[in-house]
Amino acid sequence: MRVRTPSELGALIRDYRMRHNLDQKSLAASVGVSRQWIVEIEKGKAGAPLGLVLRTLGAIGIVLDAQQETPPSPKGKNESHGVDAYVDINTIVAGARKKKK
Amino acid sequence: MRVRTPSELGALIRDYRMRHNLDQKSLAASVGVSRQWIVEIEKGKAGAPLGLVLRTLGAIGIVLDAQQETPPSPKGKNESHGVDAYVDINTIVAGARKKKK
DNA sequence: TTACAATGTCGTCGAACGCTGACATTTTAG
DNA sequence: CTAAAATGTCAGCGTTCGACGACATTGTAA
Question: I want to staple A24 with a disulfide (CB 3.0 to 4.6 A). Which of A10, A19, A38, A87 is the partner?
């Protein structure tokens, strides 16, 4: 499953927790957080610390895999905003000299 | 690439940012955070808010995929073939009646 | 060399966080 | 049904975060 937002991740955690027949209290204990925090995370809390989130995922047997995103519709020219996934000619020229190693 | 710790994710972000020839300032602007925050994230800050982390990944074209972790090869007997690779008999018995819907 | 851009680090401060504890609601066991 | 467990929510409090500004360090271009 793809994870793009805190809400998606929260739903994922809840789903896996229930699959393992764990209650919030037990999961909280094994992760090392309070039960309320588990409640928040499952609701999709955006402010949850990355470290705790990863530990929670580990506690229920989920691993995350990072991949290059599929082409964001290469229609227009060089979109100035929102960081292209693809390198355009300008950035190549701009950074052409600073090839360090 | 697998992401298990904040440090791994930080290295991933840094790698992708450089691959796109972006400086910290530009990335920070497109994500909507301070440049210092980018520095911290790339160092593997564990306390970074999940929401900002996901937005950063999106800004450089990385998607996360969640998967069931492969168990450390439980040389047990009847290997379950279903979704859950390892649910022990106790948890099954304990939760056998709580079939909700 | 000098000059500039990118990066790393350090204070300060207001805002947000997580925890404890309690209580209300929902669900399950008997 | 009632009792207990699990879950959702709230208030208070100490801790930690991110933004901001400034400065040091590094690397590249002229």
Answer: A38
From B3, B20, B21, residue closest to A66, measured CB to CB: B3
Two tokens, residue A28: 């909280």
Beta-strand pair B2-3/A62-68: antiparallel
**Closest alpha carbon to B42 in B28, B21, B29:** B28
For the record, the structure tokens of A85 come out as 């996934």
Instruction: Residue window 42-71, chain B: list those with CB within 8 Å of chain A.
Output: 45-54, 57-69, 71
Q: What is residue B79's three-state secondary structure?
A: coil
Chain B residues in contact with A6 (beta carbon < 8 A): 50-51, 54
Question: What gap in Å lies between CA B60 and CA B22, rounded to an integer?
Answer: 9
What pTM does this model have?
0.80
- Least confident window among A30-34, A52-56, A79-83, B56-60: A79-83
User: How far away is chain B from the Cα of A33, in angstroms, using its nearest Cα?
Assistant: 14
- Given pLDDT bands bounded at 50, 70 and 90, which one contains residue A14? very high
Residue B1, amino acid: M
**Alpha-carbon separation of residue A11 from A30, A31, B48, B49 (angstroms):** 19, 17, 20, 17
Q: Say whether the ipTM exceeds 0.85.
A: no
